What does this fold into?
Amino acid sequence: MSLTENLINNRSNFGAFIPAFLDDYPLTPEEFRVYAHIQRRSGSSGCFESIPNMSKHCFMAQKTTRNAIKLLLATGMIQIHDRPGTTNIYALTPANEWVNPDRVAIVRAQIKMKKDSGGKNDPCQKCTGVNSDKGRDVNFARGRGVNFARGVVAILPDEGNPIKGIPVKVSPSIVSLNPEEEKKEREEKKAGFGFQIPEEPNSSSRASLRDATRTLSEKTETSELTNKPVMEANVPPPPPDPFFNNRRTNPKNIAWDWLPEGPWRNEDGKLDTEFQIALASRWMKEYGGDLHVNKAKVLKHFRNDPTNLPIEWECYQSTFVHRVVNIQTRRSHGMDTTREEQQIAQQARAAIPLPEQMRVSQPQTSTEVVEQVASYALPHLQQKVDSIAPAQQPGIETSALEPPTDEFGAINPDAYSTQSATPEEIKFWANFQPNVVPISQKQPVDNQELKAAKAAIEALKAKKTEKSQKLTSLTQIIQPPVLDEEAVLQDMRKYLNSGSDVLRQIAIDWASDPKNQCQLVKVNGRVVDIKWVDF
It folds into this structure.
């Protein structure tokens, strides 16, 4: 029977009985839950369950369970029996040994204060009650219905001096947090014993004790800092996260006008559009991507390192000059150019030379450029190429000539051929007559003749079919020939690796048939071969 079924079967109709004094005792829900669990598990020999199992059963964290046990031990509701090497035993105490309900809040505050000051308070250690250490119990005033109470003191180490300069025996104890409660206790003691009880140290003494406690905690922190390893102390702090940084960059402090002076800068102080598009197009051919994305990368490239501007400008200018010289060379020989090529020649800013202090290479003359582009055309040029860009000559107007097209609208491939013809060619094309073969006219056919022709064609087809049919021999019917199994296997292997899905499936189906006694050879889940089954 499982644990859940056992719990269900053990249910009864009797309600939970909780005494009034336990219900009125100022415990938190977690402390009450842990006390109820210990009371249920204690029995006659006490509760010896471990803290992890107790936390798992009570559905709470181990830290919460430990804090609850600390308070139960401090208030005298339970006592602990230490068992070295195994779990401790938690035993219940009589109700008359519990701390006065008015003092529970003070005890809880003392535990919290001791936790904040760095003192160790583990419920697994010895505490008040059975087998308690000598000198570690603090008796409070007798309350109504309560014989005596137990407090919480700092559990100091038994050996060694943890803090240099402060001995263990003279370490300050925890001071009460409520002076009115102390005064009330002294009055009750006077009334009970009938003689004068010496008062405790005055406020100045208590203040000195508090200062000593504060000094103790500060020295503890100082000792912890000084005991850190050198490697950890020398590690620099991580940089602040820019997303959570309150001091963000103000747009007014950003230098938006970062483009330096040069031919790449237009009249508005921005980067030349043709230069940006040309460089983005080149990057798009080399690295791929979108044109707009590459245009943004061009701006980032020049923003991060403006010294790349003259280098890229010289590359762009050299490419532009070679294109313009090529276009002018073709036009000087009577060749037509397209509208796109004429638009390239109209980029006036690309022909602006760089200043000498910005150049990173030696400039080239127009004649050197023509020699690189079309050295064969240099002696035949009608005029010297003084200006590379036509836009530098405002008096000359360029007109774009569209190339001739054929009847389908496509550009004629002979558009750049020589336009002048010899007299022999003119005479030949004048006397040229194409050899046209006349097409015979179709004669109308009678319907009866058409039907007779169709019938004759069908008869010929039937006769041809009879001739193509072969009679099966009697030997093949009685004893059919045995097929060569090895040849069939080789054919199926060819089908498997033929590249056709249909033939491949035929080969797989044939090999999967048990009567063929074959098996499939698979590599990484794919059928790669067929072989005979080895018996």
